[in-house]
Amino acid sequence: MKKLSLISILLVLLLVPGLMFVGCSKEEAPAAAAPAAEKAAETTPVVEANPVKEAALAYFANFPGNRIIASADVFAKIDAGEDMLLLDIRKAEDYAAGHLKGAVNAPWGPAITAALEWLPDDKPVYVNCYSGQTAGQAVAALNVAGIQASSVKYGYSLGVAKTEGYEAYQETTANAAPEASGVKYDAAIKSAVADYFNAIPEGGSNIWPAAKVKEALDAEEDIFVLSIRQQDAYDAGHIEGAALIPWAKGMQEQFADVIPMDKQVVVHCYSGQTAGQAVAILRLLGYNAVSMKSGMGTPVTGASGWANEGFPVVQ
To answer: How far, CA to CA in Å, does 181 sit from each of 114, 142, 171, 308?
Structure first.
């Protein structure tokens, strides 16, 4: 009996260290795996906001209209003494030869980047070029930056100078730019808009003549033609192969599905004015876009424009 008790004691002494070892192992075991939701949160990439893209898309998402004003309406605003700023983006020599009363000159290109420092964001800005096409681009880019800009319909040559009584609203005296406005731009947006205007070479533009578009199509170059006219006009006659996104509020929702990022995009409307606005937004979104000079052509654009130049259309 004593012998059995001694054996029992020995067995207990041998087992206790093992039990202690097992207990320590449990205490030192790795922590339980994180819940699946926590793992997903750790692995899901964070998508950074892109203020330039958001502002560019908002141009059409919050679209109030075509942002084009007739010359006669500008004359009425001058008569009424409206608090506004007239911006002439023609060449300095053409501005000097005659411009709207009170208009300030900032020629198309880098000079508009400099104008960002004095353009106001608390009053309307009316922009004129020659025919409304570069003014359209300027208006869209400036609105993205926060400036309340609209373009003068058909510009100075085809709009202002063709409107009865315009001589009473013309002057040759140069007007100085206002003092710095203190506009608080979003830094990324201001930089993108500045880059847009700085990239325009002297005397250059993001506009292709209709003949150049025709030549590219005949040579089967990899270009993408986009019509932004309305459905009825497109059905009546359009450039063969042209895609359609009608000019309207919300049209930006179709951009990603319709317009390729890897092709030269040529946008056209009726006379080139709204196409100019579309081009500016597309370029800010990263598309390689240009507008077609004078669009399909109207009586106002004379011999300029795809149809006015006798190029073929399909139905």
So the answer is: 12, 14, 25, 43
